[in-house]
Amino acid sequence: MGHRLTQISTRTGDDGTTGLGDGTRVSKDHLRVAAMGDVDELNSNLGVLLAEPLPEDVRHLLVRIQHELFNLGGELSIPGYELLKADAVVGLDQALADHNAHLPRLQEFILPAGTRSAAIAHVCRTIARRAERSLVGLAAREPVRDLARQYLNRLSDLLFVLARVLNRANLDGLGGDDVYWRSERLLQSQA
To answer: Which InterPro entries does this chain map to (predicted)?
Structure first.
């Protein structure tokens, strides 16, 4: 892997470029840098979510995901380098199955609302989708492992499920259930 930062203010980016982990310099608006930034933003928002009251199993899962996202960011920073492992996707699939097993079927679309932790999980979900789109754009121009895109796709699904879990956990007393979109179909079925 490339060399690690020993200082934060290097001033080498003042010209609008940044260094990748392999020493290559690219424009700060390069698709690879955008994908790295989206993954970093997702990881940072997971840090905000981790500052909330959470069930311990969800907390441990999110910490593991933060490490995996850091691996993904490292992989993106060094073209051709592989750091994210296939078992990371398997772990997300297992977490999806485990958490989905305890949730009721959806009646309608739900709003990104409820408890604060659930709302933050929804924000993380949307950032994961953006990061996935960034990877798709990058992969159209440069080699990117399918595993990276698959990981972000599964993670966004998991974050949706975790938002539902967190609403039911209701650790801040402001939730308790999904917040359903008031569609005409749902309103008619309740009449």
So the answer is: CblAdoTrfase-like, CblAdoTrfase-like_sf, PduO-typ
Phi, psi at residue 171, to the nearest 5°?
-75, -15
Q: Which domains does the chain have, with CATH numbers?
A: 28-104+111-184 (1.20.1200.10)
Q: Cα 144 vs. chain centroid, distance in angstroms?
A: 18
Scanning the structure block, which residue is given the tokens 């933060």? Answer: 66
Nearest to 69 by CA among 81, 84, 89: 84
The pLDDT of residue 177 is above 60: yes
pTM of the model: 0.86
- Helix 56-77 to helix 146-169 angle (10° resolution) is 160
Cα separation of 44 and 47, whole Å?
Answer: 5
Give me the phi and psi of 68, to 5 degrees please: -65, -40
